[in-house]
Amino acid sequence: MKTSPLKIYLIFAIALLSACKNESSTLTVDRELQDDSQVTSKHDFGADARPKNVIFVIGDGTGINQISALEFYKEGNVFYDEFPIVGLSKVSSTSLITDSAAAGTAMACGEKTFNKAIGVDAQGHDLPNLIEYMEEQGGASGLIATSSLTHATPACFYAHHSDRNDHEIIASFLPKSGVDFFAGAGLKYFNNREDKVNLIDSLASNGYTIETSGLKAYPDAEKVGFLLAEKDMPKILEGRGPFLQKATQMAIEHLSKNDNGFFLMVEGSQIDWGGHDNAFDYMISELIDLDNTLGAILAYAQQDKNTLVVVTGDHATGGLALTADKDDYNKIKPIFSSPGHNADWIPVFAFGPGAESFSGVYENNMLFHKIKALLSPEN
């Protein structure tokens, strides 16, 4: 059964209103403990239930300490709390500590590989990804990021290249990819290239309606792409607004027209950048934005009943600790220990048909295999 665009819009509008907050820049928290009642997501799917759709949400640079900070720094519901199934993912690449490219490849393609690798194995051979698999099944797919769409994580879901830093090469994979909806930044890698090739023309010739000025509805378009900034989207603290939530809403409206289901990857890209900068205000504001988006996604999944939502991070960044402020155990002071990535295990949250498959402890490349198995008509 299809959900009408109007119903999807209303579901998202209600979820976004409930998630609104005043995003403070305070670096310490001083408050009495509160008995905040959370809205618990009803989860009554059978053990053998299988999803028609999968929404895969990645918080770049998001580990358990980042998520824990939401309890103290976000006003209102923390939507991570509403997931009934939780697992743990081991995220080392062929190095002890992964980068986003190797982690993205593991999750998108199912194999551990070397840092910087985009959709290729440890020997440099192309690996099939979840979007290519969805296309084979006749389903639809989408990508949303607050970075450029050529950045490491989103790139792993459509490109195959040995170096994440070659943005123009990576961009050249998108026009002929199986992606039906994309939204993010990186316009200059498509229309202001060193090789003078205009990939906007290539996208158009491959059936895409391309928009570069803002999120606009194109209900009759077969494939839609939004490239809304030259390199990266602005920070939340610089006025990006609810781009991530709105783009997700539009993606679901577009992709749900396909009777064979859809796969959608949504990334909160800049959580990681706040960690690298050891800038807590930057990090937490981006994570609050992602959590608000989770609220909207969960509202849709609860209504739809056929959508599996899987949420994780590719790695943790910054060595964040939530410490007491000196000897005051009623104050929390976030402290970073590193500008780099960490080797921490990363939590995985799941809701919907098939969610039970994501409990336990496993390597991050198993996320690909678990999702693929649930979408496979052979199982």
Give the helix/strand layout:
Layout: H1 5-19, E1 29-30, E2 53-59, H2 64-73, E3 85-90, H3 100-109, H4 130-136, E4 140-148, H5 152-155, H6 167-171, E5 181-185, H7 188-191, H8 199-205, E6 208-211, E7 223-227, H9 243-255, E8 262-268, H10 271-276, H11 280-304, E9 307-313, E10 321-325, E11 328-335, E12 346-351, E13 360-363, H12 366-375
Parallel strand pairs: 2-8, 2-9, 3-13, 4-5, 4-8, 5-7, 6-7
Antiparallel strand pairs: 1-11, 3-12, 9-12, 10-11
Helix pairs in contact: 1-9, 1-11, 2-11, 3-12, 9-11
Describe this structure in a few short sentences.
The chain is α/β, with parallel strands linked by helices.
Describe this structure in words.
This protein is an alpha/beta fold and 379 residues long. It has a single domain (5-16, 50-375), classed as Alkaline Phosphatase, subunit A, CATH 3.40.720. Helices cover 31% and strands 20% of the residues. The protein is built from 12 helices and 13 strands. It has helices at residues 5-19, 64-73, 100-109, 130-136, 152-155, 167-171, 188-191, 199-205, 243-255, 271-276, 280-304, 366-375, and strands spanning 29-30, 53-59, 85-90, 140-148, 181-185, 208-211, 223-227, 262-268, 307-313, 321-325, 328-335, 346-351, 360-363. Strands 6-7-5-4-8-2-9-12-3-13 form a 10-stranded mixed beta sheet, with helices on both faces. A 3-stranded antiparallel beta sheet has the order 1-11-10. Strand 10 and strand 11 form a beta hairpin. Helix 1 runs antiparallel to helix 11, helix 2 crosses helix 11 and helix 9 (243-255) packs parallel to helix 11. It is globular, with a radius of gyration of 19 Å. Residues 13-27 and 31-39 have low confidence and may be disordered.
